[in-house]
Give the backbone structure.
Amino acid sequence: MKNTVVTIRQAKEQGEKLTMLTAYDYSMAKLIDEAGINMILVGDSLGMVMLGYEDTLSVTMEDMIHHTRAVARGASDALVVADMPFMSYQTSVYDAVCNAGRLMKEGRAQAVKLEGGREFAEHIRAITKASIPVVAHLGLTPQSLNAFGGFKVQGKSEEAARKLVEDAKAVEKAGAVAVVLECVPAKLAKLITKQLHIPAIGIGAGADCDGQVLVYQDMLAMFGGFKPKFVKQFAQIGTMMKEAFANYREEVAAGTFPAAEHTFKIEDEVIEKLY
Ligand code: KIV
């Protein structure tokens, strides 16, 4: 069944948990889609896990469009959500609408995600008015890394927790179709989830959110040595890949690959004429 902004809202109303994973290319999107995951996020995490930057700040609109197009070709049932990269919406409401439009028109996304709460309510309202569904991202918002002074759990003090609750209500009021809560204490995420009519998708926000999102390299143990506290490694694909690459290297060196079954034949008489 095709996932849409309507079906994800219905899932919340019916108490069905939602799943979201990141993808950045066609083949991974196809595998995730075939596994029945509800939403694929083309996250600006691509800057770190695909392009090797130390944070997400250098990701461009061109990067996002290029990867979103590939993902959209691989996703038939999953709802494709594309991240608005740093400085593609912060500069003005006009920029926000134009760049959200590019992600839909050129990238073939079905929704866009942007980081921020009430300070971006006007942007969310304007993008929504252009018939583009918006997912808001609250809590640890990686594009604000320098303002936060590092990657830290958000909303721990009464003031910060109150601000998060109010931000969540403000983005819902502005028209957001869902909200991502990143690195928010579980009890606070539960309270926010209960107060919203739109789905709250958690990452490091506990089990009481309406759904969960993970970066696929994290959940497959494919990315570096660092494992955030909130990540569960569902498979050790990184180790399996390294073993396969090493086996390939050894078999090529030993001359056991390619074997006869990997080889194309030609009649001996044709070859003899060439000597
Ligand atoms: O960019 C990303 O992958 C994200 C998720 C971590 C939610 O925003």
